[in-house]
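Appendix B. One record, verbatim.
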Amino acid sequence: MVDTNLGVVEARFADLIWRHEPIHSRELAKLCQGELNWKRPTTYNVLRKLCEKGIFQNDGGMVSSRVSRQEFYGMRGEHFVEEAFDGSLPAFVAAFTARKKLSEEVIRELTDIINRGRGRSHE
């Protein structure tokens, strides 16, 4: 089971890994020093935590993802809809569109996604 609860800094760190994977842990520590101003132990501690959450793996010093960025944020979105809208995707969309008008292009994209979910394409 993947734990999708990440803080802002953990999410930035995860994005670095997704952008550069597979990456050796030494290179990741150098990257984090430049991007996040972290010392090596901080990088290794946060990496260990994200590995424990099931997001990444560190196999012999080579760091790679166990779930892709898209899969991770998809799971996170599902969890949000479950918690905030009792699992109702229509309730989420209704709340979203009450505050933000959808363009015709976005409506077409959403229609395509819904049709693919039904097992058919453009109609």
